Amino acid sequence: MSNGSHSTSQSNFEQGWIDISQPLSNKLAHWPGDTSFSYTFATKEQTGSVNVGRMTTSLHSGTHVDAPFHFLNEGAKIHELDLNLYIGPCRLIDIGDSEFINADALSSHDLNGVTRLLIRTKLPNNPNSFPDSIPHFTKDGAAYLGEKGIRLVGLDCPSVDALDSKELEGHHALHQNGVHILENVMLDQLSLGDYLLIALPLAIQDGDGSPVRAVVKPL
Ligand SMILES: Nc1ccccc1C(=O)C[C@H](N)C(=O)O
Ligand SMILES: [Zn+2]
Ligand SMILES: [Zn+2]
């Protein structure tokens, strides 16, 4: 197959998509105590025909979505979630050095008509090192997003709660307000404003979460 008629020809190719996913490498940081991401493969010499990979991973490795089942036994599982949540227009805002993602930190931003929101916090993109502490959602921050009609929130942190939280108040409050959760997106290089977002979970039957390939394209 000649390249001219295939992948290197850009003429009929949609351009401008930007990857905001953490690379799934064996160096990827993982939640303390959880299963790290590991990819290995059997070689052509071993199989007699092909290189063939395998991976082991927590479903919360790298850039991923949480299903409500992650924090609620009766919550929806990955295969039950509406894919329309994860494809469509979104807005990127930056909440500066705020420790909390609360109504106060959110209220200075125009969220009218926004259904998907990406929030850049002070946490730097560093996919290979797990942070010591992270900004996290308050109940009133979750309620504020619900009131604005936000259905998906994505942020550059491994959780929407404090790292030592057992109650997971932020997860529950977002869920109660109809807001779905996307974690560990890489936002440092992006300009603020409006994008198209695609961050589809894999079709994992009964999954409590799923890694996603998250991409944005400026609108
Ligand atoms: N993997 C874990 C193992 C143990 C305890 C929490 C987690 C989490 O993943 C929590 C985080 N809020 C998450 O949704 O990704
Ligand atoms: Zn998660
Ligand atoms: Zn989570």
TrEMBL record:
Domain of life assignment: Bacteria
Protein name as annotated: Kynurenine formamidase
Cofactor binding note from Swiss-Prot or TrEMBL: Binds 2 zinc ions per subunit.
Family label: Belongs to the Cyclase 1 superfamily. KynB family.
Chain positions recorded as Zn(2+) 1 binding sites: H60, H64, D66, E183
Keyword set, alphabetical order: Hydrolase, Metal-binding, Tryptophan catabolism, Zinc
Coiled coil location: none
Alphabetized InterPro entries for the sequence: KFase/CYL, KFase_sf, Kynurenine_formamidase_bac
Residues that hold substrate according to the record: W31
Functional note: Catalyzes the hydrolysis of N-formyl-L-kynurenine to L-kynurenine, the second step in the kynurenine pathway of tryptophan degradation.
Keyword Hydrolase: yes
